[in-house]
Amino acid sequence: MEIKERLISGFEKYFGSADGTRLFFSPGRVNLIGEHTDYNGGHVFPCALTMGSYALVKKREDKAMHFVSLNFEKAGVTGAFLDELDPAKKYGWAGYLLGVVWAMQKAGYKIDTGFDLAMWGNIPSGAGLSSSASIEVLMGTVIKEMYGADVSMIDIAKFGQKSENEFCGMNCGIMDQFAVAMGKKDNAIFLDTADLSFEYAPVVLKDAKVMITNSHVKHSLVDSAYNDRRRESSEALADLQKELEINGLGDLTEDEFEAHKNLIGNPVCVKRAKHAVYENQRTVKAVAALKNNDIENFGKLMNASHVSLRDDYEVSCPEVDKLVEIEWKIPGVIGARITGGGFGGCTVAIVKNSSIDEFKETVLSEYKKETGIDAEIYEAEIGDGARELK
Question: Is the model's pLDDT at 196 over the cut of 60?
């Protein structure tokens, strides 16, 4: 069934006539390098994907908001009222959408009526490809287009982050929402999260492709150690700021960090800070390598990123480590690493075209043999950011 037909059928099942509905799309994202640097004032290098979240939306005449996910129809319709939104309440998956409504209302944007929204997505749930940021930015785009909110896509990304931080209780950085809102076909975004300055960098890989492998180990970052990592990084920063005039760990070079790491009292926080500093510098070097068509060096930096995320930041897991180890051994794999917040999810790899069939066959069979889990592989197609589909 075509996506629009699926949405119309679902909308009519739950809400009645689909006349007057409008169709929206918001992508998922994959981060090529620069993990857990966004809330540490460093650089990231994500791109939007062509897979994402679709919504069919129609205004109501009252203040009620109704949501249904056609991916999880057994959950039924979730509802709330515009004037009763409360971060202390539990709204389930719809909280990511309602949090954006709440954040934009608080900022003074007028949302005068409710709406019915039917959603369907093809981002694998829990894969670390940012399904939460996708639906947050989707909601912001709906408000921009349907309610005439004079708001930039960068501001929509900020509202998505505010929603996740303050409404959903996940202390994430800005990277995911920014990539989803500002994505550009065939380009990754080289973003300095310290000041949100950015540039698009074409991802033109001669004789190679970006491959994403889903470990099918699901993470739930709200319930995981993600917030602990942010707290540990902040503790390291506070110790360093006793003698250094820095705003974030991303302000430091590797040499500056090594010269002053003794200021950090907790040895665990030393490891967290080391990752943030070195990963930021890896990201800067990786983008320079890409611009110089030095894909081999880009791949080496990806590999080093995984080792740091595994050993210093400790956000990987045995299954994903096994997946990366399998990928590293395949001839034609230029680089591979965990991507996303961690604790499960996906790997991202750059693979030579001549090795893609071997990559798929080896990864799927070896991972199943080692873990008993069936992995899933997607060829990354880099697409545009969130928008209304006419």
Answer: yes
C-alpha 371/C-alpha 368 separation (Å) is 5
Query: Residue 38: inside a domain, yes or no?
Result: no
Residues 91, 115 contacting (CB under 8 angstroms): no
- For residue 64, give the CATH number of its domain: 3.30.230.10
% of the chain at pLDDT higher than 90 = 87
Shared domain check, 313 and 220: yes
**194, 40 Cβ separation under 8 angstroms:** no
Show the 3-state SS of the chain. Answer: CCHHHHHHHHHHHHHCCCCCCEEEEEEEEEECCCCCCHHHCCEECEEEEEEEEEEEEEECCCCEEEEEECCCHHHCCEEEEHHHCCCCCCCHHHHHHHHHHHHHHHCCCCCCCCEEEEEEECCCCCCCCCHHHHHHHHHHHHHHHHCCCCCCHHHHHHHHHHHHHHHCCCCCCCHHHHHHHHCECCEEEEEECCCCEEEEEECCCCCEEEEEEECCCCCCHHHCCHHHHHHHHHHHHHHHCCCCCCCCHHHCCHHHHHHHHHHCCCHHHHHHHHHHHHHHHHHHHHHHHHHCCCHHHHHHHHHHHHHHHHHCCCCCCHHHHHHHHHHHCCCCEEEEEEECCCCCCEEEEEEEHHHHHHHHHHHHHHHHHHHCCCCEEEECCECCCCEEEC
Question: What's the rounded Cα separation, in Å, for the pair 159 and 44?
Answer: 19
Which pLDDT belongs to residue 218? 75
Q: pTM value?
A: 0.94
- Which positions are annotated as active-site residues? 176
| 94 and 190 fall within a common domain | yes
Number of domains in the chain: 2
Same domain, 175 and 303: no
Domain extent, residue 363, equals: 208-379
Last residue of a domain, one of 168, 202, 236: 202
Cα separation, 230 vs 286, whole angstroms = 24
Q: What is the mean pLDDT of residues 75-89?
A: 91
Please check the confidence at residue 169 and state whether its pLDDT lies above 90. Answer: no
Check whether residue 144 and residue 255 sit in a common domain: no
- Overall average pLDDT of the 150-163 stretch: 97
User: What pLDDT, on a 0 to 100 scale, did the predictor assign at position 220?
Assistant: 58
Closest CA to 219 of 364, 80, 320: 320
pLDDT at 222: 47
